[in-house]
Amino acid sequence: MNIDFPTEISSLRDTLGNIIAVTHPDELKERIRDLSQQAGDPALWDDQENAQRVTSQLSYAQAKLKRLESMEERVDDLEAMVELAGEAADEERGSLLDSAAQDLKKIQTDLADLEIKTLLSGDYDERSAVVTIRAGVGGVDAADFAQMLLRMYLRWAEHNNYSTKVLDTSYAEEAGLKSATFEVNAPYAYGTLSVEAGTHRLVRLSPFDNQGRRQTSFAAVEVIPLIETTDHIEIPESDLKVDVFRSSGPGGQSVNTTDSAVRMTHIPTGIVVSMQNEKSQIQNRAAALRVLQSRLLQKRHEEEMAQKRALAGDVKASWGDQMRSYVLHPYQMVKDLRTGWEDGNTSAVFDGQIDDFINAGIRWRKDQQGNE
């Protein structure tokens, strides 16, 4: 074992110091005090949506502060263990250094994860997210791929104990989905998932081809921040066209018995939002309006960013037509074409084990922003 513990510990302290400088623990503690006062107000729960937002933000802030304080203690404990090993007898020194090496590796991993979270500093990064998946080119395979991606993201949220709500599902005729929209209700869900936006490609032997030929199909992922009451995205009724229709999907559901589904069109922009997973037309209309407001908020933000880039004289292209490939034949590999990150365990990836891809994407995005 040839670990230079003093150098490694010094590196840990430097990284932790940078994280603390960005996180501002004193401001975080003040925010926790403010949120705790709001959470202690009995009148808070008169507004269920706001109460959930406050308690969720409080829980996240407390966990964030605890991670920082815990990380400082773990680095201190590691340093103390190494010092103790230096003073121990030979037979005990080896055991202590083995334990120190294991602790060092775990701290490095956890510190890297903590560092990722500090990179989420965009205007809307702390918001919950609304994710829409749409089948692209590839026929029934593309629709099946869209359903695979929906399950992947819902499983990812489940692994992270994030609350989700499927808002709309449009089923394809033979199999899979034409599109699906869902919320991920957790602090920084938007900042985290926004790096997943783009075109995803699947290569496999098609289970829908009677000759078993290889098929390439595509699906698009859109991620927008969830609207909040403070955003003031006012939409005049005259700008809206609202159509109602009967929900589609597997039979036997109560949502299929009435014209409860809502299709809302924003006339000035042409943005269309459909909602059908709630039981009443009123609920679907409210959900559609909220997603429409979120998309208008995102559009406004993108226009502002485009204007800033234009003024700077440096307009860059988007990520391109394809940001990640999922190859199931002739070999097994998922590879992100922006970051170069890859994973040969495709089953785990489709089961929601995508944190490494997301973390690499967040670092890549920060590097791109630094080069602009």
UniProtKB/TrEMBL annotation:
SUPFAM superfamilies xref list: Release factor
Residue numbers of N5-methylglutamine PTMs: Q253
InterPro entries according to UniProt: PCRF (IPR005139), Pep_chain_release_fac_I (IPR000352), Pep_chain_release_fac_I_sf (IPR045853), PrfB (IPR004374)
Subcellular location: Cytoplasm
PTM comment, free text: Methylated by PrmC. Methylation increases the termination efficiency of RF2.
Function comment: Peptide chain release factor 2 directs the termination of translation in response to the peptide chain termination codons UGA and UAA.
Organism: Gleimia hominis
Similarity-based family: Belongs to the prokaryotic/mitochondrial release factor family.
Ranges in coiled-coil conformation: 61-117
Main location (coarse class): cytoplasm
Domain Prokaryotic-type class I peptide chain release factors: 246-262
Protein name as catalogued: Peptide chain release factor 2
